[in-house]
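Box 4.2: Ligand-aware structure prediction
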Amino acid sequence: MADILNKWKQALNRSSKAAFGRLATVFGATDIDNSTWEDLEALLIQADLGVGTTQEIVAALKKRVDREGITSAQELSSILREELLLRLDPPPNLEFSGQKPVVILIVGVNGSGKTTTIAKLGKQFSQQGQKVLLAAADTYRAAAVDQLQVWADRLFLPIITGQPNADPGAVAYDSIQAGISRKVDMVLIDTAGRLHTRTNLMEELKKVHRVTGKALEGAPHAVWLVLDATTGQNALLQARAFKEAVKVTGVILAKLDSSARGGMAFAIQKELGIPILYAGLGETPEDLERFNRESFVDGILSS
Ligand SMILES: Nc1nc2c(ncn2[C@@H]2O[C@H](COP(=O)(O)OP(=O)(O)OP(=O)(O)O)[C@@H](O)[C@H]2O)c(=O)[nH]1
Ligand SMILES: [Mg+2]
């Protein structure tokens, strides 16, 4: 347990050193005055909480300071922790009851961390005793298929690939068929990165989504959006567009370890209501953790 907490703290070092770390100067002041609130608001916005969430938090803090008769800036720190925690949902249950294979479609913009995340998920699920099949439905670049193939070999996971430039829907379809006949528990489908603003590519993704449903009723059982945590507020626009196109059911925040702006997690929950399922905390297959709101908040607030 202590190891896991340390891992979060180390990974969130950048976020905590940047905007959140500077909270220490706000909380270091003796008494709460107008500048305390101004500084706090500025720092939360810089940490990418978004204007809406920031204003909501500051208003809630002001109310509590009044009601609870708090005067020292120091005490603000612990009620801020509480208010931040309140704005993240507890991790949802990820049991998929009855379905077999469970088909999970992994989507996101270019370079957000999809392929690496699939390797991490594949490793975790297979360690939990699940029979996993990977599907390389990113057929745009030969290198993309190779990348997933390398992970599959390294992790001893079976993989279905298509020819370069093959129809990604066809690869997804074939992989589900293979998953059914091989009686696997899970099919993890990698897709090509695409900008959320490119209509034709988003249409193609919708098609992949539909095709999986033809291969197996009820598929995909989950659509997980991989967001690069270093992107900041643009991640919110991405999440909105992907949610609209393919009904995203969960978010994976990759690269939290490289990010100084982890605050976007709050904006995603507040504005889109999509649960954050996992956090990517590094580049190796072990660096994926179930998103834990306490570890996350303590990680960004530690300085
Ligand atoms: N530090 C860190 N790097 C990560 C993490 N996840 C992925 N990366 C790195 O991000 C880069 C892009 O990762 P990919 O998995 O190839 O991203 P992708 O979304 O599949 O990219 P495209 O297929 O080109 O759209 C690689 O260098 C990864 O090692 C993470 O959690 N932390
Ligand atoms: Mg990829």
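In the box above, the bound molecule is guanosine-5'-triphosphate. The mean pLDDT is 90.
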